[in-house]
Amino acid sequence: MFTPWLLSALARAFIAGDPNPDAVVERCTQLLGKPWRWLKPLAVRYHETIAPESSPNPPLREVLRFLQSDKGFRSAAKHHRKALELAQPIPDPPEMHPVPAAKNWPLPALTTGPELAHWLDLSLGELEWFADLAAMGYRNKNPRLRHYHYRVLPKDATNVRLIEAPKERLKKLQQRILSGILDQVPMHDSVHGFRKGRSIQTFCQPHVNQLIVLKMDLRDFFPSIGRARIQALFRTFGYPEPVADVLGGLCTNATPRDIWHNVAWETQMLYCQPHLPQGAPSSPALANLCAYRLDCRLSALAKTCSASYTRYADDLAFSGKQEFAKCAERFSIQAAAIAAEEGFVVHHRKTRLMRRSVRQHIAGLVINERPNIRRTDFDELKAILTNCVRSGPEAQNRGPHASFRLHLQGRVAFVKSINLNKGTKLEQLFERISWG
After folding, report:
1. Given phi > 0 = left and psi -120 to 50 = alpha, else beta, which region is 268?
2. DSSP letters for 107-134
3. Separation CA 189–CA 204 (nearest Å)
4. Residue 60 belongs to what H/E stretch?
5. Strand-pair partners of 316
6. Taking the mean position of all CA atoms in its chain, how far away is CA 333?
7. Which long-range contacts (CB under 8 A, 24 or more apart) does 364-368 make?
8. Are 159 and 267 in contact (CB under 8 A)?
């Protein structure tokens, strides 16, 4: 068999650009110094087996396993070992190899660990510590040596929501990755959550005054996206595998089991695997980019029945006229199947099919005639503000919220952004509160 160095160099040549067999043969010929006859059949088998068109920039270890298990390659290596080893060239420095769609994106060229460390203003040791690819933070029971603060919040009767807030230094690294890399990558047009210039209002607007609205929800949206998927995304951008692995480590986390109390075993197992942490500044953009294929397929499915599709994080919304109304139930089944194929799970208990005769609501807004606040939400906030005026805000802070004043001010501002008249009334009540 080849020496480990030459085998690794050959595997890198396979994934260093265009996956077309002719292009692979050309790169391997430059590496080996001769167009060996067995190269073209090997490149064809690679193209058929690894399927780089559906999985761009496959991991190096996957290509190495393919070469080591391919009978034709093993036979060629056995018969031509000496001649091939004499042809070993000086290795080229690593380069960016983005997929065709990513070639014009203004991404920083980071091809080695030292380059990535310099870009993040870290030493190599610090980079390895924060990436934590060995999951030391998961095993370490000292909270001071962990990179995240944890807060478990009840979600409903049976589920919880885990907020994983990165500590200050890691948070700055994730913000750097967000602004320098992720913000340079275009998202699907149907995405409205965590995106500049988009909001809940833009998410709801295409579904206002429609004959029928279909609302669906993705279960465990952030924790269902694992580290391997994030690393593959960075390889798609063109980053070499070692750099992509470290970037994936910086943006994901494995939750220690000792933070859980009386929580279902299935939930603990989901979070103990490296995943996108809900609370990290880089997670929303990464989740949106990982859902790009999902958005493409659901948008195309909606067009087949003249329906509109938008997504706000884990909330999916579809709407349309008579043509969509005829097939809405079958449509929901097809949409759930597509989500499953793309690695997501639909929360079927939260799926709602709402016709015009009932209250149509998505993302907490009523959309029958125009986006509006639900009456119950408005009445609840009005009652809290009224009680704050009468008896002071301290007794109403049942969260408790660290800054109850800012909390109420934000809720009032949100209502005002949706309905100016209702928001103005609440604002007048807010101004009458004595904060002492």
Report:
1. alpha
2. -----SHHHHHHHTT--HHHHHHHH-TT
3. 14
4. helix 60-69
5. 216, 311
6. 23
7. 364/200, 365/200, 365/201, 365/204, 365/418, 367/204, 367/207, 367/208, 367/209, 367/210, 367/213, 368/208, 368/209
8. yes
pTM over 0.85: no
Q: Residue 422: what residue type?
A: K
Q: Are 175 and 167 in contact (CB under 8 A)?
A: no
Q: Is 332 helix (H, G, I), strand (E, B) or coil?
A: helix
Cβ–Cβ under 8 Å, residues 396 and 436? no
Cross-strand partners of 352: 215
| Exposure letters 357-386 (e unless 16+ CB within 10 A, then b) | eeebbbbebbbbeebbbeeeebeebeebbe
Residue closest to 305 by CA, chosen among 329, 292, 321: 321
Cβ–Cβ < 8 Å for 319, 309: no
pLDDT tens per residue across all 436 residues of the chain: 556 666 777 888 887 777 788 888 888 887 777 788 888 888 888 888 875 555 566 787 888 888 888 888 888 777 766 555 545 554 556 788 888 889 899 999 999 899 999 999 999 999 999 999 988 888 888 888 899 999 888 776 567 889 999 999 999 999 999 999 999 999 999 999 999 999 999 999 999 999 999 999 999 999 999 999 999 999 999 999 899 999 999 999 999 988 888 788 888 888 999 999 999 999 999 999 999 999 999 999 999 999 999 999 999 999 999 999 999 999 999 999 999 999 999 999 999 999 999 999 999 899 999 999 999 999 999 999 999 999 888 888 887 778 889 999 999 999 999 999 999 999 999 999 998 7
Answer yes or no: are the C-beta atoms of 291 and 229 closer than 8 Å: no
